[in-house]
């Protein structure tokens, strides 16, 4: 059994055929899904999806892209309140994205801190999105010794992975590890210890080879798992077992 530890099932790309998408994933052994919140205004939609499918869980949080809309007074209280839903198992995705910088950096850092505070208060893990912001991401996390969670869709350097592991975080790999130009990332994947690895699709984005450019969907978690099995020289069964174990150990509000 596999877990898609990061997908966006409420996005319009899945509006017409979510039942079929879930069914196709289950046929490929993907039996648990974590659908990730990117805007608090969509938290209720996501919770509805999680209510509908017994094996879909969800998070509450605002993407760093949208940080500027999520630093209003009372956002901390909103995070805490929305996280009371029984299928919320994590906080995010939050973090820092200096590649797109859709929100100013200071706003992103402020929003990130608020999410970390809420996650500690709730004792729920963080789902962290970080791109071209290694130093500030690590500095912000280190302000909160109790912070825990996962660096999702990892595409950073070996140094960043090592720092994240040293802080006790998990590392989640997506279909990017199948891309031709991702040798450096495959090298990172080869050294991350098996008890700290998760897999995800980040669907509907980032479809793995051979589906690159098309809509991504949770079924393709198995492609990333297969690639990981090849990189690490470990059987697909062991990859599936260990990444599933890791998922339930980290997201343990079940
Ligand atoms: Zn992300
Ligand atoms: Zn995402």
What does this entry look like structurally?
- The structure is a single chain.
- The chain is an alpha/beta fold.
- It has a single domain, classed as Metal-dependent hydrolases (TIM Barrel, Alpha-Beta Barrel).
- It has an eight-stranded parallel beta sheet with strand order 1-2-3-4-5-6-7-8.
- The longest helix has 18 residues.
- The protein starts with a strand and ends with a helix.
- The model has no long low-confidence stretch (mean pLDDT 97).
- It binds zinc ion (2 copies).
- The site of one zinc ion (ZN) has 4 residues, from loops.
Report the bound ligands by name, code or SMILES: zinc ion
> Percent range for helical residues?
25-40%
Tally of helical segments: 9
CATH structural architecture: Alpha-Beta Barrel
User: CATH class, please?
Assistant: Alpha Beta
State the main characteristics.
9 helices, TIM Barrel, 8 strands, binds zinc ion, 17% strand, 8-stranded parallel beta sheet, alpha/beta, 254 residues
Which helices and strands occur, and which strands form pairs?
Blueprint lengths: L1 E6 L10 H10 L2 E6 L7 H10 L3 E5 L14 H8 L5 E10 L7 H18 L3 E6 L2 H9 L6 E3 L6 H9 L3 E4 L9 H9 L5 E3 L21 H12 L3 H15 L4
Parallel strand pairs: 1-2, 2-3, 3-4, 4-5, 5-6, 6-7, 7-8
Summarize the structure.
The protein has 254 residues and is α/β, with parallel strands linked by helices. It has helices at 18-27, 43-52, 75-82, 105-122, 134-142, 158-166, 183-191, 221-232, 236-250; strands at residues 2-7, 30-35, 56-60, 88-97, 126-131, 149-151, 170-173, 197-199. One zinc ion (ZN) binds next to loops.
């Amino acid at each position: 059994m596999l877990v898609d530890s990061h997908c966006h099932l409420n996005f319009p790309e899945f509006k017409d055929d979510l039942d079929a998408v879930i069914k196709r994933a289950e046929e490929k052994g993907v039996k648990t899904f974590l659908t990730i919140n990117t805007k608090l205004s969509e938290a209720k939609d996501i919770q509805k999806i999680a209510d509908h499918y017994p094996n879909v869980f969800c998070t509450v949080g605002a993407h760093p892209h949208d940080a500027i809309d999520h630093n209003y007074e009372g956002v901390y209280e909103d995070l805490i309140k929305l996280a009371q839903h029984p299928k919320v198992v994590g906080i995010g995705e939050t973090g820092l994205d200096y590649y797109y910088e859709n929100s100013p950096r200071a706003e992103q850092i402020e929003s990130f801190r608020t999410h970390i505070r809420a996650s500690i208060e709730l004792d729920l893990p963080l789902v962290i999105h970080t791109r071209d912001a290694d130093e500030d991401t690590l500095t912000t996390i280190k302000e909160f010794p109790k912070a825990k969670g996962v660096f999702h869709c990892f595409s950073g350097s070996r140094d960043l992975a090592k720092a994240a592991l040293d802080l006790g975080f998990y590392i989640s790999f997506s279909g990017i590890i199948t891309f031709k130009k991702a040798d450096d990332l495959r090298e990172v994947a080869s050294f991350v210890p098996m008890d700290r690895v998760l897999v995800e699709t980040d669907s509907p984005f980032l479809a793995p080879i051979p589906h690159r450019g098309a809509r991504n969907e949770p079924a393709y978690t198995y492609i990333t798992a297969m690639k990981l099995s090849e990189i690490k020289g470990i059987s697909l069964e062991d990859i599936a077992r260990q990444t599933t174990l890791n998922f339930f150990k980290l997201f343990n509000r079940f």
